[in-house]
Design a protein that fits this description.
The structure is a single chain. It contains 24 helices and 19 strands. The mean pLDDT is 92. 47% of the residues lie in helices and 11% in strands. The protein folds into three domains: 156 residues, Glutaredoxin, CATH 3.40.30; 371 residues, Alpha/alpha barrel (Glycosyltransferase), CATH 1.50.10; 81 residues, no CATH class. The radius of gyration is 25 Å and the shape is globular. The chain is an alpha+beta fold.
């Protein structure tokens, strides 16, 4: 039996390389094999830090008997959902036709032409109550394939057609855009207040997630003057971190107070008993959220600062990789005193951890998720004048530009220790990286990052055709060949969708350039998504955050000074208003931005603070109190 996973880049695939299952990696070879043998495929999707993926690998995929059943009757494909998010999105959307309990591992049974006809998540090796064993599932699928092929193909065709319909652009996509108004945003905030857990904070019951994109929306509305949104955002963040919570008690165990990072979710409503994996995207977004809250509240107690410093330390000391960039996640399982256990390492104090091996990292550098981390560290580093945080953001940005930005202008999705993945980049990679480079550029005053961001946005806009944005090079070629690629995927889970990420990047570029086409592209996306997002704000926080930015009057603050520690610069670092930006840079840096075509900086050559409304700037202010008064007006 050939070991097709032994040369994989993905740590998740490598962890299955020694299974007795004859795995294929994602690719056309697997489908060609299934067509030649006239057998169905098992497409098994997971990721390296997924606890139940580990469990199923040990219980079932390492079992020689189950492996024989799979090898004889199926073509088995192992997919890292973080490496191939578009594959995961297509098959998890299809899986909703068969089970309401979506998650990972996701196991989809598909025809040789790629159409799913049955799917589920974890199946145990032995039946538990009404829950069948994996062997029983395989036998039932094989029976249906062998004896009821017509029914199988009918189901597969119906699911594939529904999938195509769900991912098709509406016919009115190109009509003039109009973002939601203040009343619609207030109604969305009221809905979120209705979802709040009044006893323990956050949204809903167990399991309970941080819902970072929703927090982004609430803080954007708070920055626009919505006191209810700001108060809800503060209560949620306090509950997540176990700070100043006004409910029953601050019991949150979601934060690792030793190393600073947050776990993915809590299995209980009171934020206890975490699922102990630590994801890059959660910690990056929470770093931004706590920073924004600190800026908005200007609380002299700086209650959030300890949390902020902890997240930044976790990103730099635990997640940063040699040569720059951040690992995608840290595992929930580890070996403690010779026993492999979930969460055991995190239950130890700092002294006890010294003698134990830390949980493994998934060392994939994922472009989009690194973008979130770069932007977060740049934003927090600027706000609190922490140069080491900005330096880490700069190292990661330089690593991605060097390794993931290809000569033709396209982007790699992922790499591990310099080895590139063959997976296709998605809109989230382009959008999150472009946004991050703009945030780093304005945090450092270095125009080069903004130029790279502008090139990325321009390329994605050029690939859009009738739509404002498209993936350069197209969708995953295997999905596209089988008609399963989602033309539009607006879904948001733990982080913004590719569409909302691109809309945010394009709008940020508009704030620097004044080029209307960037704002128009962003607004068209928001108009398309607003009918989906406004009735369901808990599921579309990233979209609504961009919509809020688009709806607000534009305020741009440029502090030109050769003294980065000046009082004017200090005021700018505390400034956060929805749909606006603040930047501190030297006279030389301002001139370089202007020369590069960023219109906002044209004629900003004198030292002082330029407060601009929609690109129309006042005469420069020279006193900090004068600037504070102008910002408060």
């Amino acid at each position: 039996m050939s070991n097709r996973l032994s040369e994989a880049v993905s740590p998740y695939l490598l962890s299955h390389a020694d299974n007795p299952v004859n795995w294929f990696p994602w690719g056309e070879d697997a489908f060609a094999e299934a067509r030649q043998r006239e057998v169905p495929l098992l497409v098994s999707i997971g990721y390296s830090t997924c606890h139940w993926c580990h469990v199923m690998a040990r219980e079932s995929f390492s079992d020689p008997g189950i492996a024989d059943l799979l090898n004889e009757n199926f073509v088995s494909v192992k997919v890292d959902r973080e490496e191939h998010p578009d594959v995961d999105a297509s098959y998890i959307a299809a899986a909703g036709a068969f089970t309401p309990n979506l998650g990972w591992p996701l196991n989809a049974f598909v025809t040789p032409d790629g159409k799913p006809f049955f799917a589920g998540t974890y199946w145990p090796p032995i039946a538990l109550g009404q829950h069948p064993s994996f062997r029983q599932v395989l036998s039932a699928v094989l029976d249906a394939w062998s004896n009821r092929r017509t029914d199988v193909e009918s189901t597969a065709n119906a699911v594939a057609e529904a999938l195509r319909a769900s991912g098709t652009l509406p016919s009115d996509y190109a009509r003039p855009a109009s973002p939601p108004d203040a009343a619609e945003f207030a109604e969305a905030v009221d809905q979120l207040i209705g979802y709040e857990d009044p006893e323990f904070g956050g949204f809903g019951g167990a399991p309970k997630f941080p819902s970072a994109p929703v927090l982004d929306f609430l803080l954007e509305r708070g920055a626009a003057g919505d006191a209810d949104a700001l108060a809800l955002g503060r209560r949620c963040l306090d509950a997540i971190a176990g700070l100043n919570w006004t409910g029953v008690r601050p019991v949150s165990a979601l934060r690792d107070c030793v190393e600073g990072g947050f776990f993915r979710y809590a299995t209980r409503r009171d934020w206890t008993e975490p699922h102990y994996e630590r994801m890059l995207y959660d910690n990056a977004q929470l770093l931004t959220a706590f920073t924004r809250l600190e800026q908005l509240e200007a609380d002299e107690s700086h209650a959030q600062l300890d949390v902020i410093e902890g997240i930044a330390a976790f990103l730099i000391e635990v997640m940063e990789q040699p040569g720059g960039g951040f690992a995608s996640a840290q595992d929930s399982e580890s070996t403690v005193n010779g026993l492999r256990v979930e969460g055991g390492y995190y239950l130890l104090d700092g002294a006890a951890r010294v003698g134990q091996p830390p949980p493994a990292l998934d060392e994939k550098l994922i472009t989009g998720w690194n973008g979130l981390a770069i932007g977060a560290l740049a934003t927090a580093g600027f706000a609190f004048k922490r140069e080491p945080w900005i330096d880490a953001a700069r190292r990661a940005a330089d690593a991605l530009i060097a390794r993931h930005l290809l000569p033709d202008g396209t982007v790699l999705r992922a790499s591990v220790r310099g080895r590139p993945s063959t997976s296709s980049a998605t809109l989230e990679d382009y959008g999150m990286l472009a946004t991050a480079l703009i945030q780093l550029s304005t945090a450092t005053g270095e125009v080069e990052y903004a130029l790279v961001a502008r090139g990325l946005v321009d390329r994605v806009m050029a690939a859009g055709g009738a739509a404002p944005f498209g993936v350069p090079g197209g969708a995953d070629p295997v999905l596209a060949a089988h008609g399963l690629a989602l033309e539009v995927d607006p879904s948001e889970g733990a982080y913004p969708s590719g569409l909302s990420a691109m809309a945010g990047a394009s709008y940020s570029l508009y704030l620097l350039t004044g080029y209307a086409r960037y704002r128009e592209a962003s607004a068209r996306v928001i108009e398309m998504l607003a009918p989906l997002a406004l009735p369901r704000p808990i599921s579309f926080g990233g979209t609504l955050a961009v919509a809020s930015a688009l709806s607000e009057p534009i305020r741009q603050l440029i502090v030109v000074t050769d003294d980065a520690h000046s009082a004017l610069a200090a005021v700018a670092r505390t400034s956060f208003h929805s749909g606006s930006l603040a930047v501190v840079l030297s006279r030389e840096q301002a001139a370089r931005f202007a020369e590069a075509g960023f219109e906002l900086f044209a004629r900003r050559v004198r030292e002082g603070a330029y407060l601009c409304q929609n690109f129309v700037c006042r005469l420069p202010l020279t006193e900090a109190e004068e600037l504070r008064s102008a910002l408060a007006a």
